[in-house]
Amino acid sequence: MGWWWPETGSNRRRRPFQGRALPLSYLALAMLSSTRGQVRPSSSCVSLRLPVEEGYADPSDDGSFENVEPQYSNHHGLTPNRMLACGILGELHAMDRQVSMIRARIALGLFIITTLCCAHAQTTASALTPGEARATHAFAAAKKMGPGELYAFLEPMPKGADLHMHLLGAVYAETFIAEGVQQGLCVDPVALKFTQPVSNSGAGACATGNVPAATVLKDQHLYDALVDSFSMRSFVPASGISGHDQFFATFDRFGGLKDHSGAWLDEVATRAAGENEQYLEIMTTPPFTRTATLGYKSGWPAGAYKDATREQLAKLRDQLLAGGLRDEIVDDSKQIADAEAVRNRIEGCTLPDEVAPPACEVKIHFLYQVLRAFPPQQVFAQTLLGFEVASADPDFVGINFVQPEDDRIAMQDYHLQMEMLDYLHSVYPNVRISLHAGELAPGMVPTAGLSFHIREAIDLGHAERIGHGVDLLYESHPDQLLKEMAAKHIMVEINLTSNDVILGIKGNEHPLAAYRAAHVPVALSTDDEGVSRIDLTHEYVKGAEEQALGYVDLKNMARTSLEHAFFQGESLWAAPDDFAHHKAACTAPITAISTPTAPCTALLKRSERATEQWELERRFAVFEASLH
Ligand SMILES: [Zn+2]
Q1: How many helices (H) and strands (E) does the chain have?
Q2: Which of 152, 213, 499, 533 is the most exposed place for a label (fewest CB within 10 A)?
Q3: Worst-scoring range by mean pLDDT, 228-232, 237-241, 372-376?
Q4: What is the Cα–Cα distance from 111 to 104, expressed in whole angstroms?
Q5: What is the pLDDT of residue 480?
Q6: CB of 540 closer than 8 Å to CB of 554
Q7: What is the pLDDT of residues 134-182, one digit of tens each?
């Protein structure tokens, strides 16, 4: 999970931050708006004080204002009076809920056992191709020798797409340090973060106690400490500082760099090419400062803090569009176009195909990141801009919500934000949606907060893919949810290292086995490979070692990634997520040297997805043929 905070101005510097310590730019924006309320205890209940927005009626006039339910659950219809009685009723409800949870878990256990048996039967029944048999044998031998050997085996294995990666989080600390030196930034050697030079004090002058970034290159100790500070390297949790805290704190520390998106795209594309990846769907947050300002100016409908109607949201959308929200689309598109141009220049992608480097072959599209830990007027305005940008610019193939899901506002407004998506999806049905949902672990938030995020991301948020989905088994009726996800082909983006370092969830605590047993499509991704200091191959190794994934499992995950990428066009496969049969036009075997038949060529020409899928099968043929 990573994100950008864009700023306006001639340099259009973008400053990342982490959600818990809100950046100054947020505070400045917050001053434009009324203060959002805070959660506080009220006897045995929890109540939420909400602000009175300018231009709207005061909802506390009727005396009910003090008892608005916080959005920690998807329960609706609790009136203020009922809230007052929740001390007693809450206990009864808890008992009732316990019984229903036990029933749900028994049902889920039976469901998983049944499906695991079926899955096993299917695996043993399906025959491996000679290439897969060779690869399975080589995979087993490498696994036996250890993680290094397994990495060496898996690195050249075709991997399809990485569908869950944040541009900023994908860059390694060493790159940021080199750029900090180039840009003449300063370093706070105590806080171990970049700082800006002091203006009016001569070029390169740093504040008292800070040193020029160039100093870091002559001080190995400081260099090491900075790399650690910018990443999860050497991090050991201590009292009061978890992996979650360290992870999100890194974004603020390497903030202050000017935008180098083009160079960063080159870094991730080059790494992806080295691991035999074809496609990256990268999350990024283009400029939206004017949109946010418009959002605060428009305000938020009175009384719409728990639920907002479509009529209210439609009216607000009209106001925002009339206020000039679409003016920012051109800036957002230009930023991405410029970054891609720089990437192409650095990589030499204008050279003929024979001499252009492999990184040029890595196709990149973008997902528009919306920051979810802000007041609803900002979140709605930015989400609207995201839908507008994704509708206007083919580089953006969809949207996603980011920032820590356990953030106070993100938790409080989760349902409200899903309602925003429900409405905007009805206006922009062609914009694809993937959502971080269930990136939570027991104890991080109240139990009720674990029970509905994945469900609502699908039902209200219209997510075609779920990012993380870690708290699956704490959702209400997880067995029904799994069945529905399998039936609707909702893919889960699995980020094993991220879940390990941020949530402390790994091995059999991770729900990957439950998803697989239920035939929910899954694919591995990196999330933030720079901060976590990993790559996609590392995730394949982790999957093999901690999740008992075999060669064919990994191969099918690579296929799944392209099946669920937000490409245009039909699939190469005859049935969704069934990798047994190609479409009739492309039934000819795909080998290392084959070319598509005429009917297949016609299909590939009209489908970006099928083209990448055909290429993946060709790469598998090459890889498996290379094994002895
Ligand atoms: Zn993420």
Answers
A1: 24, 15
A2: 152
A3: 237-241
A4: 10
A5: 98
A6: yes
A7: 999 999 999 999 999 999 999 999 999 999 999 999 999 999 999 999 9
3-state DSSP call for residue 465? strand
Domain ranges of the chain: 68-171+259-286+324-563, 172-253, 569-628
Ligand 1 centroid–CA 389 distance in Å is 20
Q: What share of the chain is helix, strand, coil (3-state, %, to 5)?
A: 50, 15, 35
Residues 21, 509, 113: CA angle, nearest 5 degrees:
145
CA-CA distance, 204 to 97, in Å (whole number)? Answer: 61
Phi-psi map region of 63: left, alpha, beta (phi>0 left; psi -120 to 50 alpha): left
CB atoms inside a 10 Å sphere around CB 298: 22
- SS3 assignment, position 345: helix
Provide the strand spans (E) within 535-590: 573-575, 578-582
| Cα 23 from Cα 360, distance rounded (Å) | 36
Q: 165 alpha carbon to ligand 1 midpoint, in Å?
A: 6
* DSSP states of 5-42: -B--STT--B----SSS--HHHHHHHHHSPPP--EEEE
436 CA → ligand 1 middle, Å: 6
How many of the other CB atoms lie within 10 Å of CB of 138? Answer: 16
Cα dihedral: 203, 206, 212, 213 (round 10): -110
Alpha carbon of 493 to ligand 1 centroid (Å): 9
Distance 155 CA to ligand 1 centre (A): 23
Instruction: Specify the 3-state DSSP secondary structure of 390.
Output: helix
Residue with tokens 């490498």: 142
The residue type at 368: Y
Q: What is the pLDDT averaged over residues 337-358? A: 93
CATH number of the domain at 68-171+259-286+324-563, out of 3.30.1390.10, 3.20.20.140, 3.40.50.1380, 2.60.40.10? 3.20.20.140
pLDDT at 81 over 90: no
Output the DSSP codes for 116-180. HHHHHHHHHHSPPPHHHHHHHHHHHHHHHH-HHHHHHHHTTS--EEEEEEETGGGS-HHHHHHHH
Predicted pLDDT at 628: 78
Nearest to 519 by CA among 552, 545, 486: 486
Distance 525 CA to ligand 1 centre (A): 9
Q: Tell me the three-class secondary structure of 418-452, residue by residue.
A: HHHHHHHHHHCCCCEEEEEECCCCECCECHHHHCC
The rounded Å distance from CA 284 to ligand 1 centre is: 11
Residue 537, pLDDT > 70, answer yes
How many angstroms does the Cα of residue 458 sit away from the middle of ligand 1? 17
Cα–Cα distance measured from residue 573 to residue 563, given in angstroms and rounded to the nearest whole number: 8
Question: pLDDT band for position 353 (50/70/90)?
Answer: confident
Q: How far is the CA of 4 from the centre of ligand 1 (A)?
A: 13
* Chain centroid, CA 499 distance in Å: 12
Q: Give pLDDT tens digits for 441-494.
A: 999 999 999 999 999 999 999 999 999 999 999 999 999 999 999 999 999 999
Q: Report pLDDT digits (tens) over 324-345.
A: 999 999 999 999 999 999 999 9
Percent of all residues in the chain with a pLDDT value above 70, rounded to a whole number: 79
pLDDT at residue 108, as a whole number: 54
Mean pLDDT of the chain: 84
